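User: Hey, quick favor. My workstation is busy. Could you predict this chain's structure for me?
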Amino acid sequence: MNAWTLSYEGFKPEEERLREALCTLGNGYFATRGAAPEAAADDVHYPGTYVAGCYNRLVSHVAGRDVENEDLVNVPNWLPLTFRPEDGDWLDLRQMGVLDYRQKLDVRRGVLTRFLRARDRQGRVTRVTQRRFVHMADHYLAGLETAVVPENWSGGLEVRSALDGRVTNADVARYRLLDGRHLVPLEAGTGLDDDTVWLLVETRSSHVRIAQAARTRVLRDGEAVPVERRTLQEPGFVAHELAVDVREGEPLTVEKVVTLFTSRARAVAEPGEAARQWVARAGGFDELLERHVVAWGQLWRRCRTDIDADDHDVARTVNLHVFHLLQTVSGHTIDLDVGVPARGLHGEAYRGHIFWDELFVFPFLNLRFPEATRALLSYRARRLPEARWGARQAGYQGAMYPWQSGSDGREETQRLHLNPRSGRWLPDNSHLQRHVNVAVAYNVWQYYQVTGDLEFLSEHGAEMLLEIARFWASITTYNRTLDRYEILGVMGPDEYHDGYPDRDRDRAGQQRLHQRHGRLGALPGAGHPGSVTRAPAHRARGAAGPAAGGGRPLGGGQPQAAGLLPRR
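Assistant: No problem, here it is.
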C-alpha cells in the first residue's frame, strides 16, 4: 500500500458498484467503469463506457406524463471476456468458491489489475490475473490482458470475447422508469483478419454513430497459439469463441485490444472503417501499455501535487482525485466540444449533465493545464446564443446559462419531479439556481487573470461577461421600503431550499440566499464582490416595484416540462 495505489481485498458483491466507479479508467475522450470483464449489468455489477459529449434525447411515458430527458449515453461494452473449462460453467464468482481475490488501481500508471483464484463445481482451481488500460496516448485505444493458469487440471479451455451494444442506461435506480434504450444496432462482423470482430451502432435521436473493433489473440510464452475460432452474432452483439488446450500449471494469455471511434471524430472518414483499420495497426498489449504509461508519466510531471505527510492516506486521496480529474479532462479534451459532467465520465448520475462543477476544478487546471480550461470555457462560449435565448424566454436581458446543460446548452433541468412514494408529480424549482451564471463569469475572469489570454478574452470572454452582467442587472428588483435592489425568486447554492417560510405573505422575504452567500451582481475580479449592493443607476429611476421582467415569484411564468426527480 502506497500513495499511488488503491487496493481491495476479497470479493464483496455489496461493494462492487462503488469499486467500479473508483476504478474507472479513462483518457478524457472515453472512460470505462472498473467492472469485471465477465460481468453483465445486474444488481451487483454495472459495466459502463461513456464518450465525452455523446448525448441522446428520449421521451418516456411515466405516470401519465411524457418526460423528455437527455442522457450521456452508455455506449457498447467493450470489456466482455470470459472463459470456462470444456463442458464447464462460464466464470461467475457468485457461483464458485472464491479462494483469493485482489484488485489494485495504479493511479500513477493508469492500470487496473485484478487477481483471483476460484474453484468450480468440479473442483478445478483456476488462477487468473487481468490488467487493463484506456490508452492515454492514443485516445481511441483500450486493452485487456487475461492470464489463465489451471492449477490442478488440464484440458480444453473455451474463451468468449465480445462487443455488446445491447446495453442501456440503467445505472441509477431512480431513473429506471425512463427509457434508457439509446442505441440502435446497425452492423457487425469480422475484421481485416481472423482475430477481429467489429460493431457499429447509432444513437436514436442525435444520430451519433459509434464503432468498436476488438482484436483477440491467445499467447503462450509470448508466442501466438493456434486456436479454433467461431463467430457469434445477433443484433447489437458480436463475439469470438475460442477453443484451446491448456496444461496444469502453465499460463495462457489472452490479449484483447479495442478501438472506439464515433462519427464526430476528427480525421476520420467513417467510424467503422477507422475502428477496423486502427485495431489492425495497433501493437501488442505490452507495447501499447508502455506508451500508455509514458503518457501518464508526462501528465503527472505536469499535475503532480507533493504532499508532505507521513500518512499515505492523505497523499493517496489527493492523487486519486487528480487521477480521476485527468481521466475526465485531459489533453484529448482540447479538441472536443464538451464540458465537465457532475460525475465525470464515471457513471450516469445527474444524467451526465454539466452544472457548475468546473468552478472547483479550474483553479487546478488554470495553473497546470490552461489549454484544457480554455477548451472547456469554449463549450460555454459556443452556447452563448442559447443562453441569450434562455434569458429572453424568462423575461430577462443578457445571457442566462442553464443550471443543467447538455449537448446544445438548453435548460435540461426538470420542472416537475415524481415522488416515488406518493406517485404524485411535484414542482421542481431547481432550475432557479441562477448562481451557475456567476460561476461561468468567475471562471472566465480567473482564467484570464492566471493566463493573460487576451485573445480568448477579446474573442469570447468579454462578451460572455457583459451578457451575464446584463442578465444580473435585469433580474434585480427595487425594494422601495429598504431602498435597495434585491435578487428574488432564485434557489440557493445548497440546492435544496427554494423559498423562505411565509414567503407568500411577505414578498420581500422571498429567497435571498444569493445575498447572504455574497453579492453576486458584480463582475468577478471587479473589486470585492460583497461591495456591490445596487444595480446600475438607470434601473432605479422611477422604480416602484419589480423591474420589468424581473423579481417574479418562484416558478411564476415559467414554462412547464415534466421530469423524473431532481438532481439532489
